[in-house]
Design brief:
Layout: H1 4-31, H2 38-66, H3 76-98, H4 103-112, H5 114-131, H6 135-141, H7 143-149, H8 152-167, H9 172-197
Helix pairs in contact: 1-2, 1-3, 2-3, 2-8, 2-9, 3-5, 4-5, 5-8, 8-9
Length: 198
């Protein structure tokens, strides 16, 4: 409880920080600063932030245990929903600006291009997780809620693979993100194993 007042101040600050990538994109678009290929720039930016925020969300649980501040869990839902928000922008950029709602062509891309298949899988998993993130759904699903939301690791893995297959040459960032995801998953599995053994 001692951190309650601090977190009340931090929450709107973190909210604004999470909005910053979108504000920056809008500002660059207004100034004509999105480069020679604006659609590609928007696609990459929204995709990057989807993955960054997803991994930050997953980091909260082990980090709060390390620093012994359980109240940090208050930020997890907001960060997870921001990850979904940027995932929606990423998908809509591809759907609207790149494909112009050409659904047959989009379907072919999903089936024939592995990196798009992985991206679609990751985004598809995030949809039910975002819908069921409310307190009402937590009550309705009961013990099944936690089981469902463990699929966030599958979504994150799909996102990392999507990123890795997309960049083709300079794979440093997706590899680093993959290492972080493996560390987070290992931490989760170790924590689960200790609980079972205790």
């Amino acid at each position: 409880m001692k951190y309650t007042s601090i977190f009340k101040i931090l929450k709107p600050i973190i909210f604004l920080i999470c909005l910053f990538p979108l504000i920056r994109l809008l500002w660059l678009a207004f100034k004509g600063g999105l480069g020679a290929n604006p659609i590609e720039y928007i696609t990459h930016t929204t995709g990057d932030w989807t993955l960054y925020l997803l991994l930050i969300t997953l980091t909260i649980t082990p980090f709060r245990k390390i620093v012994h501040i359980p109240e940090l869990i208050r930020f997890r839902r907001m960060l997870g929903l921001f990850a979904f928000f940027y995932g929606c922008l990423h998908f809509l950029t591809w759907c609207v600006l790149d494909k112009f709602f050409d659904f047959p062509e989009m379907g072919k891309d999903i089936l024939k291009r592995p990196f798009i298949t992985m991206g679609a899988l990751g985004f598809g998993i995030l949809i039910p997780l975002a819908i069921t993130s409310t307190r009402g759904w937590i009550r309705r699903l009961g013990k099944h809620w936690q089981t469902l939301h463990r699929f966030v690791y599958v979504a994150a893995a799909a996102g990392v693979i999507h990123f890795y297959w997309l960049v083709k040459s300079d794979v440093r960032r997706p590899v680093l993100l993959g290492i972080l995801l493996l560390a987070l998953l290992s931490s989760r599995l170790w924590s689960g194993a200790r609980t079972l053994l205790s």
